[in-house]
Each structure stands twice: as C-alpha cells, then as structure tokens.
Amino acid sequence: LDGYTIRYRVHLQDIGWQNWVSSNQIAGVIGKGLKIEAIQIEIIPKDIQDTENKDDTENITIKSGIDVSHHQGTIDWSKVKQDGIDFAIIRAGYRGWGISADGTNGKLVKDSKFDYNATNAIKNNIPIGAYFFSQAVNEKEAIEEAYFMTSIIKNYKITYPVIIDVEYSGAPNNTGRADNISKEMRTKICDAFLKVIKNAGYTPMIYADKYFATSNLD
Q: Distance between CA 126 and CA 179 in Å, rounded?
C-alpha cells in the first residue's frame, strides 16, 4: 500500500508467536510442517516513522488484528481485548480437501468455534470479518461455498471483509482436490465467490500468500 508499511507475525503450532517481519519477508519457519495458527498484522502510515512533528501523528490510529479458527480452542475474548487487538478475522467454514468419513468428496463444514468466536468478539467490542477456506474446483462449487458462507455469517455484524482463503490444502504431496487446478480456473473460482459476497452486501477479499497468488491467480 502506498504510504504505509505493513508488518506481520505468525503464531506457529507448538512454538508460539514469531518475530515481526515486513517487506514480503517470510514469517515463521520453512520445512517443519508446522501449522500457522494465527496471524497478526499492523498497517503503519509511513508518516508516523518519518515526521519530526509529533503533532502530525496525534490522530493516527494503528490497528492490530488476529486470524482465528477452532484451532485456537476456546479463546478468552476479554483478554484479547485487553491485549489491544482491534479486530479479528474469524474462520466461518471450510471445504474438505478429500473424502470425508461419510463419503462426501469436498464436504462443506462450518467451523465449530465460529458462533462462539463471533459472539464473544463482538460482545467485547472487537469488530470482525470472516473467511472461508476454499477447496472448490469449479465456479459452481465456488458459488456453493459463498452461499454457505453467507448463511453462517448472516446473523452477525460483519465490519471487516468477507474473505475467500485460497492456498494449498496441506494434503500430502499436494494431493488436495483443489491443489492442482489451473490458474485460469482458480481465478474464476475467486471471482465467482466474491461476486456472491459483494451482492450480499459485504466487502469481498481474497487471502493468499504472495507466492501462491502470483503463481496461481491471474
């Protein structure tokens, strides 16, 4: 973003929070197979770093946010508020990357902690957005995911974007159902999902890391 510095850090499985990084640096570790359990992001106006006139920065607000799902367990949202977190992006659901126990290929699943997280974040005056982990392989499935998403979040005040999360599934050897679709199809999937979200009155957004986005999206 022009005029801003973005810095970020990740909370890794079994390790905890890592150091802050910026400028497209890697946050976390490589090759250890550890899940990223949360992400904290700060967007800092460059003027706050450059100005010598303190009065110019009096009205500048820096916001810190977190990304959570059922992987974080039962969160004490009052403590989250006390820690100075300004917003939360909460996973609403996901599509499975393979065959589920009931035989469904790519089952749609609501995150088991979404209602708890959304209710208690809002109760503690933490505005929220929401995301869906996609494993759609065509536009029809993307639209299905988007309507499933809106059915989950419709009773909550969603202030921040509603997001499609597109990334590799984490299945062994990239064997997830959507891991190897074409760039053209993945772009169409995102477009179809976000059109439904926008038409439902939310702010649409794509989440992907830089490498995945440049390699797998047009």
A: 34
Residue with tokens 């999902």: 193
Q: Is the pLDDT of residue 177 over 50?
A: yes
Element (H, E) at 67: strand 64-68
Separation of alpha carbons 142 and 160, rounded Å? 21
Main-chain dihedrals φ then ψ at residue 133, nearest 5 degrees: -80, 110
Section 23-35 average pLDDT = 74
Residue type, 20: W
* Bigger pLDDT: 147 vs 21: 147
- Report field, pTM of the whole predicted structure over 0.90: no
Q: List, as one string, the DSSP characters of 32-49.
A: S-PPEEEEEEEEEETHHH
